[in-house]
From TrEMBL:
Compositional bias ranges of the Low complexity kind: 598-611
Compartmental location: Endomembrane system
Domain Clathrin adaptor alpha/beta/gamma-adaptin appendage Ig-like subdomain: 708-818
GO cellular component term, pick one: membrane coat
UniProt KW Cell membrane keyword: no
Molecular-function annotations in GO: clathrin binding
Protein name: AP complex subunit beta
SMART domains, per database record: Alpha_adaptinC2, ARM
GO BP of this protein: intracellular protein transport; vesicle-mediated transport
Membrane topology: Peripheral membrane protein
Domain of life per record: Eukaryota
Protein family membership: Belongs to the adaptor complexes large subunit family.
């Protein structure tokens, strides 16, 4: 009969029966009782009352019974620390048992009992086991050191266990070496400054020797340790690569990926002129291909890692395109990942094969997959110039199918092809316009509007087409509204006499009838440009746009180098560094590839450069349609316009008002005067001469020495704000209050469109100007801002009195946090409350207590 019988009993009074059985003189009955106790513990019953009785059963020669008792102890020692000490003598005795299995079991259990009172008794038995004659005991003791270090790091250092652990790297048994490396690596991760794994060529040689003989998980520990080593020159790097290469043929996929990580890292130090470099490239391909014959879940992990490898060194798999062709029974997550890698490997040599495959995918039934396939055709056109015509022809064929979602995706990618190859494929616009009525997705509608606005002079009825979109302006999504506004302004600048009414209509809708701040801001900017200097408006809105070379889903080079160092881990699946998703990642050190020696070549392969582009050319960014204010004019903002300052009068000297007073009537006056709440009177250009600070809101008081300024503290951690970290402090300088902010982008995407808002508070603190961040915040970039504050905001009693609730918005989301501001910022330099407050602190306290609200000023 199996042990399942122990899990079936649920009768009352069981604890008393078990207690009697545990104290029985018969060994078999005692063993049966302990099994019942463990079964009860496993299903969640509280059997801690039997602790003394179970501990008494430790005094036995039966290994099975001893294991069961130790299992019970590990579970309940934390809740019964005083009782657990009773077992210490038995542990110490078992550590000297003639049976190595019992010695190892004792030291392992002592390491798992996380009770401070017991750790001091563990030191002496652990010291003996680390030098035990049996390798099984030594390898168990090595892991125990890491567990003890986690409980009491200082004790481990004082007892000299770390030095003993380092000595075990030279042990004759490979499994002892592997466990010693694993323990040291874990301790080093939690204490990055300790420099425990100070490897040298001699210790590396010992690790490589042990690599061939230890178990697969031991090999992974050793390979991960090797990946953290920095060879002194390219010869040593080559020697290590030669000895690691046989691991590529291992049956365990984790061993293969760890070996790939070591080779990818050390290849950086090898010259591309070496014969061995080419040999290594050829050896890396077969194991990666083999990983794709595993189960779908393993395939996905392998594909995510291959995605990184292909971005770094596409030459490794450039001849293996067929392996990434999608199979009919692949899960969708595998299909999408394969599609991504196919595009990365696409080149002039294989583009015909890739396009035929992609066209086939576009007729599948899975909508998500079909969309991605159509987008992939557009990406191929951008990447391989020679294939652009064939790609456009393929997309037109797909549009003719009249399948709604296929047509919409095709129009989105054709817009990008127009950006890449201007004045080359405009003949297809007529075909696109035929499908105008079938577009119902915001991205496709926005793309079509962009095409109509960009090529308005070639489309006879462009004004009618755009007017048809304008009819349901308020029902459109934000990105369509923004694109429509820009397209009609373009059309007006190209055909001013025919479209004056249309542009007046859209500017009125954007500025007066809309409650979207992004749309209003863009409308007012266009309004101001058209009214004051039409020449400048043309130069800005119709500026020549930079060509795009490849899509922006390529990982940023420094992040890619870091992720290559994490191949085979979760970071390589998420495509994020560990610091982005590991909570409390104080011990994580940012890794990077070693510098290339003996060659001035770029780490990127020549094949990685987009076809038709010079090798040094960096891929330009294709902004996403959802990026509302990151690029103010959405693909229309050229270089900063140099010219005379914009006058504050309605029309600049010598300039002609193309709008002919049309906008003046919209504002309800005879001359163009912006409302002061939206457009301050000072419209002089910023020092940069561009549109960065069109309304001159960034001017402020210079920072001089004043009252005490506390150091910045983290107000909003990145983990709670999708990668945005905000640190700050408050200061008062020459009578002006300011909030000094430090914004850090720890996400993997660009952040823009920043704005800030305060909740009502006790002293009416409010921003005196918008949050000015003139350039989008790139990943890992930090920007420092001083936000001027005033005390004319709404007032409400807060608890505590100096509590301030803040909302910060960007293109990703809106984030909330609260902080306490020091009361001294409200005092003038002579120590009194600022005159603006109008009453004393005592008066304030009385009013807050009595009324609950204080009206400031």
């Amino acid at each position: 009969m199996t042990d399942s019988k122990y899990f079936t009993t649920t009768k009352k009074g069981e604890i008393f029966e078990l207690k009697a059985e545990l104290n029985s003189d018969k060994k078999e009955k005692k063993k049966e009782a302990v099994k019942k106790v463990i079964a009860s513990m496993t299903v969640g019953k509280d059997v801690s009352a039997l602790f003394p009785d179970v501990v008494n059963c430790m005094q036995t020669d039966n290994l099975e019974l001893k294991k069961l008792v130790y299992l019970y102890l590990m579970n309940y020692a934390k809740s019964q620390p005083d009782m657990a000490i009773m077992a210490v003598n038995t542990f110490v005795k078992d550590c000297e048992d003639p049976n190595p299995l019992i010695r190892a079991l004792a030291v392992r259990t002592m390491g798992c009992i996380r009770v401070d009172k017991i750790t001091e008794y563990l030191c002496e038995p652990l010291r003996k086991c680390l030098k035990d004659e049996d390798p099984y005991v030594r390898k168990t003791a090595a892991v125990c050191v890491a567990k003890l270090h986690d409980i009491n790091a200082q004790l481990v250092e004082d007892q000299g266990f770390l030095d003993t652990l380092k000595d075990l790297i030279s042990d004759s048994n490979p499994m002892v070496v592997a466990n010693a490396v694993a323990a040291l690596s874990e301790i080093a991760e939690s204490h990055p400054s300790s420099n425990l794994l100070d490897l040298n060529p001699q210790s590396i040689n010992k690790l490589l020797t042990a690599l061939n003989e230890c178990t697969e998980w031991g090999q992974i520990f050793i390979l991960d340790c090797l990946a953290n080593y920095m060879p002194k020159d390219d010869r040593e790097a080559q020697s290590i690569c030669e000895r690691v290469t046989p691991r590529l043929s291992h049956a365990n996929s984790a061993v293969v990926l760890s070996a790939v990580k070591v080779l990818m890292k050390f290849m950086e130090m090898l010259s591309k002129d070496l014969d061995y470099y080419g040999t290594l490239l050829k050896k890396l391909a077969p194991p990666l291909v083999t990983l794709l014959s595993a189960e779908p879940e393993l395939q996905y992990v392998a594909l995510r890692n291959i995605n990184l490898i292909v971005q770094k060194r596409p030459e490794i798999l450039k001849h293996e395109m067929k392996v990434f062709f999608v199979k009919y029974n692949d899960p969708i997550y595998v299909k999408l990942e394969k599609l991504d890698i196919m595009i990365r490997l696409a080149s002039q040599a294989n583009i015909a094969q890739v396009l035929a495959e992609l066209k086939e995918y576009a007729t599948e039934v899975d909508v998500d997959f079909v969309r991605k396939a159509v987008r992939a055709i557009g990406r191929c056109a951008i990447k391989v110039e020679q294939s652009a015509e064939r790609c456009v022809s393929t997309l037109l064929d797909l549009i003719q199918t009249k399948v709604n979602y296929v047509v919409q995706e095709a129009i989105v990618v054709i817009k990008d092809i127009f950006r890449k190859y201007p004045n080359k494929y405009e003949s297809v616009i007529a075909t696109l316009c035929e499908n105008l009525d079938s577009l119902d997705e915001p991205e496709a509608r926005a793309a079509m509007i962009w095409i109509v606005g960009e090529y308005a002079e070639r489309i006879d009825n462009a004004d009618e087409l755009l007017e048809s979109f304008l009819e349901g302006f308020h029902d459109e999504s934000t990105q369509v509204q923004l694109q429509l506004l820009t397209a009609i302004v373009k059309l007006f600048l190209k055909k001013p006499t025919e479209t004056q009414e249309l542009v007046q209509q859209v500017l009125s809708l954007a500025t007066q009838d809309s409650d979207n701040p992004d749309l209003r801001d863009r409308g007012y900017i266009y309004w101001r440009l058209l009214s004051t200097d039409p020449v400048a408006a043309k130069e800005v809105v119709l500026a020549e746009k930079p060509l795009i070379s490849e899509e922006t889903d390529l990982i940023e080079p420094t992040l890619l180098d870091e992720l290559i160092c994490y191949i085979g881990t979760l970071a390589s699946v998420y495509h994020k560094p560990p610091s982005a998703f590991v909570e409390g990642s104080r011990g994580i050190v940012h890794k990077s590839l070693p510098p290339r020696t003996g060659s001035s070549e770029s780490a990127e392969s020549p094949d990685a450069a987009p076809s038709g582009a010079p090798p040094s050319e960096q891929p330009a960014v294709i902004p996403t349609q959802g990026d509302l204010l990151g690029d103010l004019l959405n693909l229309d903002l050229g270089p900063p316009v140099s010219g005379p300052p914009v006058a504050t009068s309605s029309v600049q000297m010598g300039a002609v008002d193309l709008l002919g007073g049309g906008l003046d009537s919209l504002m309800g006056g005879t001359s163009f005067t912006a409302p002061s709440a939206v457009m301050p009177a000072n419209l002089g250009p910023p020092p940069s001469g561009g549109l960065g600070d069109l309304f001159d809101l960034a001017g402020g008081v210079g920072t001089l020495s004043g009252s005490h300024v506390a150091p910045k503290t983290v107000w909003l951690p990145a983990m709670k704000a999708k990668g945005l970290e905000i640190s700050g402090t408050f200061s008062r300088q020459v009578g002006a209050i300011s909030m000094d902010l430090l914004l850090t982008n720890k996400a993997l995407q660009v952040m823009s469109d920043f704005a800030i808002q305060f909740n009502r508070n006790s002293f009416g603190l409010a921003p005196a100007a918008p949050l000015q961040i003139h350039a989008p915040l790139a990943p890992n970039q930090t920007v420092e801002i001083s936000l001027p504050l005033n005390t004319v905001g709404s007032v409400m009693k807060m608890d505590p009195l100096n509590n301030l609730q803040v909302a910060v918005k960007n293109n990703i989301d809106v984030f909330y946090f609260s902080t306490l501001y020091p009361l001294h910022i409200l005092f003038v330099e002579d120590g009194k409350m600022g005159e603006l407050m109008g009453f004393s602190i005592l008066d304030l306290r009385e009013r807050v207590t009595r009324q609950g609200v204080v009206w400031v000023g």
